[in-house]
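quick one before i forget lol
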Amino acid sequence: MLRTGYVIALLGVLVIVVSGCGGASTPVNPASPGALSLAPESVLPDFVRSAPPQVKEAYRFAVANPDVLKQYPCYCGCTAAGHRSNLDCYIKEQKSDGAVVFDDHAFG
């Protein structure tokens, strides 16, 4: 009888562990509402095009999702340079015609 209790407890722990490991494998569908996208690499300035892939991806994300980055403050001390959010580390200005003036702050 005592062994049955141990077996049941062990099975309960295994169920919890296995169920906790399986939930994060659902892929994100880029066509789903609210999905974030990346701008094409062709919009990047030359200094970013030659950067490592992670840097290029970050700049592409900034161009395609400015409203997202505006929500996050920057913690590197760049507020002294006039930055108001994390977006300012990537983009200096978005002109009325849609042209983007890039900042190299996030480059290095």
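fyi The first helix runs from residue 2 to 22.
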